Amino acid sequence: MSREALLSGTNDPAEPDMRASYNWIRTYVPGWSGTADEMAEKLTFSGTEVEEGEPHGDDVIFEIGVTSNRPDSLCHLGLAREVAAVSGETAQDPECAAPHDGQPT
Fold first, then answer.
1. pLDDT greater than 60 at residue 13
2. Do residues 86 and 42 make contact, with C-beta atoms less than 8 angstroms apart?
3. Domains of the chain
């Protein structure tokens, strides 16, 4: 394995660290009305490396470079919070509830 591959955390330094869905990020930022290109620009402005957006059906898949000092950018919700922060929108956490069967835990 090459030095570059070891340092990048991937087996192939030409591959992105992560791929992220534009539509999925938008589910966490309901007020976002911009395009995929505008979102990529906002993420880049915030310091997140966005290589390119590739159309995939009615979605766009971003290739994201992740740095070791930004573990919050390792998921769609983290990217959505970043978009919200630089765009003035509000990020919305996903709804989740633990199942309850009436038995004590």
1. no
2. yes
3. 3-87 (3.30.56.10)
